[in-house]
Amino acid sequence: MDEIDKYIKKIVTKKIEEPPSFEKAIREALYSEKFYKRMRKRKIIKTISTACATIVLTSGVAVGGFIAYEKVWKEPKQYTYEELKNTIAQSEVPEEEKANLITEEEAKNKALEIVNNLGYENQEIAKIELNQNKEEYIEKTYYKIETQNNENQNLNIRINAETGELESLEDNNLLANKSNTDEISKDKAIEIANSIYEDIGVDTNEYELNYCREEEVIYNGEIKEVWSTKINKKYAGIVNPYEGLIIDFISNSNKIEISSINNNQDEEYENNPEVITKDEAIEIARNKEKGFTSNEIIEITVEKGIRKMNKYIYNLENNIIETNTEENSNDNSSIYSNTVKARKVWIVSIYHKENKMDNVEEYLKSKDKAYFIDATTGEIIGGIKIEFK
Predict the structure, then answer these.
(1) What confidence score (pLDDT) does residue 332 get?
(2) What distance lies between CA 150 and its chain's CA centroid?
(3) pLDDT value at position 88?
(4) CA distances for 70 relative to 23, 33, 74, 98, 360, angstroms
(5) What beta strand segments (E) does the chain contain?
(6) Which of 2, 89, 207, 383 is the most buried (most CB within 10 A)?
(7) What is the structure's pLDDT at 18?
(8) What is the C-alpha to C-alpha distance for residues 47 and 27, in angstroms, rounded to an integer?
(9) Taking the mean position of all CA atoms in its chain, how far away is CA 236?
(10) What are the residue ranges in the chain where pLDDT is below 70?
(11) Cβ proximity of 301 and 349 under 8 Å
């Protein structure tokens, strides 16, 4: 047995989890030009691809370009409210971890660079501290910085201690000191927002504007008019709803003043590869839906998206009915937590012909719903109830 034979035997006998699209992936790998030229002389390329597909079908082995993808769905863990609170803690950063972080001096320089680019004048560092928030699935380490100038204008700034990126900026005094604002158009507000994004180093071509609106904010009993805008990061044209920047600002006597900037990256996006096809995703969702209800399916739509795992489908499978009554909102109530990582998915929406159901469980399972089908593994990692079409 030569090295190629040993390699093939090792691949097809591994006990690994199963996403679909295996035969296509195997054939694409085997028929790559370099590999095919080596194998053609031996006249066994057809035998190998057939054998691989047969072993995959009968043993549960799945190969995507000779890469095995582990299952990603994690069954939600059950907590009481008090237990969940205790999974979140702020702590000091261990010395051995500080070597991988930007220094305090670098964080100060970054903060001052940002405030200068935004037009704040004479700001100096008044306070800086390194904080670390640990949660069940994610750890955040950041510098908390306070600046002030000789006019007692205070800014609270958070700088990511690993990347040096701005996480947030707040002007504590702006709304307290401003009573009148200029009237500007939505197009002008978008233009201003894009300029601010560029000032803090954001490439707006990689984002999509999802929100721009003038909002009324009540501050110390007074109504303030504030423009709020939000952009979200795109990956290969797919908008990530969990990664974006929100900027609130006012125009006062033709001068733009920022109330707050928030860089929202609460959900880590894994940018997982697309292995599952659109048709496979539809079939996975359709089969699951048939297990829930016999109601006639009248329409199925599908689109690519980025979503995090949730327990909607899990609850339906396990007949878990959640309510929002006072009874289950105390510290002893059961709360389910799942991973916060976001994945590339197929969003498969299924619509039914309306029928009357005899009980609550049947009613909930028969509702129109969208499935989140993991684009790599084919697992159902969550979904939502569709309220309106």
Answers:
(1) 52
(2) 41
(3) 56
(4) 18, 28, 11, 32, 35
(5) 77-80, 89-91, 124-134, 139-148, 154-160, 166-171, 207-219, 222-235, 238-252, 255-265, 297-308, 334-337, 342-352, 369-374, 380-385
(6) 383
(7) 44
(8) 11
(9) 15
(10) 1-67, 79, 81-91, 134-138, 178-179, 266-267, 323-340, 389
(11) yes
Length of the chain: 389
Please report the pLDDT score of residue 23 as a whole number. 44
Q: What is the pTM assigned to this prediction?
A: 0.73
Residue 286 backbone phi and psi in degrees, to 5: -60, -45
- The CA-based angle 186-187-188, given to 5 degrees, is 90
Residues of 79-102 as b/e, b for ≥16 C-beta within 10 angstroms? beeeebeeeeeeeeeeeeeeeebb
Q: Token digits for 366?
A: 């028969």
What pLDDT shows up at residue 182?
Answer: 85
Separation CA 329–CA 324 (nearest Å) = 7
Residue 345's closest CA among 380, 311, 316, 369? 380
* Token pair in block for residue 280: 């496979």
Q: How far apart are CA 212 and CA 208, in angstroms?
A: 12
Which pLDDT does position 268 carry in this prediction?
78
| DSSP calls for 169-195 | EEESSHHHH--------HHHHHHHHHH
Token pair of 167 as six digits: 């996480």
Return the amino acid letter for 42: R
**Residue 374 and residue 69 in contact, taking contact as beta carbons nearer than 8 Å:** no
